[in-house]
Amino acid sequence: MRNAWYHEFYTRLLPGYLDAGEVTGATGRGRISGAARADFAAAAAAVLTAESMESRTYELGGPSFTLAELTDTINTVAGTSLVHRDLTEAQYAAELQRSGLDPDSARMFAASDASLARGEMHTDSDDLARLVDRELRPLADTLRQAF
To answer: Fewer beta carbons below 10 Å: N end or C end of the chain?
Structure first.
């Protein structure tokens, strides 16, 4: 099972976004096929309890969004006015270091965002929805619960 990004990755960053008044990153227009942790867990349970044990790869992800769309969704859910600021990978690493992150971690997080910009967390597969056999939890619902 190849899981895309978890919604909860972003919910843990909400306090920082709110303090800064912005969502920064180096994701460009990269789409993120995020889903709630509970949806990924339900898919894992379905695969692990299936009667047939076919050997295959499941590409798991939900409806995709960009970091700009995430920002808009946060604003809608929370009534905030955060802005999205997209940076280059180098600019983002430098900003993370200025905020107190050590250089190696800052480069790692910036490289992760650059991978999102290249589409490495995007999938058009419907494997997740088929495995859970129900509607996937919307990003807005995950954010709403976090607030």
So the answer is: C
